[in-house]
Amino acid sequence: MTPDLSIVVPVFNEASGLPFFHQRLSACARAVADARGMRIEIVYVDDGSRDDTAAIASELPALGLDVQVVALSRNFGKESALLAGLDHARGDALLFMDGDGQHPPEMIETFVSLWKDEGFDVPYAIKADRSDEPMPRRMFVRVFYRLLNFGASSRIPEDAADFRLLSPRATAALRRLPERNRFFKGLSSWIGFRQKAVPYRPAAREHGSSSWSFLRLLGLSMEALTSFSPAPLRLAGLVGALLAGAAFLYGSWIVVERLLWGIPLPGYPSVVVGLMVIGGVQLLVIGIMGEYIARILSEIKARPVYFVADHAVRHAEPAGERPAAVDLPKVLP
């Protein structure tokens, strides 16, 4: 039978904490399923982990819920893992969350209540504050969202997380989007419908460390900007227009100085500085255009976004056969 809700969890190098996370997630999801008479499945997508995440995920018990495990052939990135979960999920509605424990499974009930009881199509989690983060990171995030929403037709909420639920019609709309270079938070906001932010505070990681370095975040930000927003091109055009205007005014002033006061024309230094500024801006604009052309090339080549190495489904045990105590799988050496 088709599940009413699929919980999609992309994982990468989470072997040490995955068994405990699965137990917590299963308990919260099963409580929602029993209270509302829903059928819920969990879909783990292993994004080419270098540890034993895929092996451990394949042995996780189906604690009253169906469990799918989709192992990708290599690390394709989180956006590709989210797409793999979207493609393999069997549920009418979807809920996306991270597998590192920072997205609290207890919020599943809140999301389902907003969907079922209040009619919201996309309830999503948003960070209550970033006071615990370094100032440079907070400034980077603020500038990123300002650029992302500059001239955008649909605004992407600042500090929104991938942790969100999509109703059946929102899920159907997301599945109709054909692009390959995807920015999930942007796409799920762009489809519209009734959306609602739910403030939350990310929990501290209990196991392992985050794989999101500053360079990876910078790369993801650039990919998001070029895949979802024309802001870099518009800003490049604006900078070019400002430089052209400044050059025209400066040239006019030089002519006035020469004709009225006989001041000789500026020499070598001003010419070199002008050439360096204009050349630097030209290279910057060419680089930005190159990023967009690279995205176009990727779309034209139409390569698969991911490949699946293994796929397994564990069906839920009948209520009378559930074990009283859950034996968590051991972490492989």
Written overview of the protein:
This protein is α/β, with parallel strands linked by helices. It is elongated and about 95 Å long. It folds into 2 domains: about 5-210 and about 305-320, Spore Coat Polysaccharide Biosynthesis Protein SpsA, Chain A; about 230-300. The longest helix has about 35 residues, at about 270-300. The model is unreliable at about 320-333 (pLDDT under 50). The chain has 10 helices and 8 strands. It has an 8-stranded mixed β-sheet with strand order 7-5-6-4-1-2-3-8, with helices on both faces. Helix 9 (about 230-260) packs antiparallel against helix 10 (about 270-300). It has helices spanning about 20-35, 55-60, 80-90, 110-115, 135-150, 170-175, 185-190, 215-230, 230-260, 270-300; strands spanning about 5-10, 40-45, 65-70, 95, 120-125, 160-165, 195-200, 310-315.
What layout of secondary structure does this protein have?
Elements: E1 5-11, H1 18-36, E2 40-46, H2 53-58, E3 66-72, H3 78-88, E4 93-96, H4 108-116, E5 122-127, H5 135-148, E6 160-166, H6 168-175, H7 184-190, E7 195-200, H8 214-228, H9 231-261, H10 268-301, E8 308-314
Parallel strand pairs: 1-2, 1-4, 2-3, 5-7
Antiparallel strand pairs: 3-8, 4-6, 5-6
Helix pairs in contact: 9-10
CATH C-level class of the largest domain: Alpha Beta
| Rg, alpha carbons | 25 Å
CATH superfamily of the largest domain: Spore Coat Polysaccharide Biosynthesis Protein SpsA, Chain A
Report, as a whole number of angstroms, the end-to-end distance. Answer: 37 Å
Give the second-level CATH assignment, the architecture of the largest domain: Alpha-Beta Complex
Q: What is the β-strand count?
A: 8
Order of helices and strands: EHEHEHEHEHEHHEHHHE
Low-confidence stretches: 319-333
Q: What is the residue-averaged pLDDT?
A: 76
Largest sheet: 8 strands, mixed
Structural class: alpha/beta
Strand order within the widest beta sheet: 7-5-6-4-1-2-3-8
Number of helical elements: 10
Topology-level CATH name of the largest domain: Spore Coat Polysaccharide Biosynthesis Protein SpsA, Chain A
Strand content: 15-25%
Give the overall silhouette.
elongated
Helix content: 40-55%
The tally of domains stands at: 2
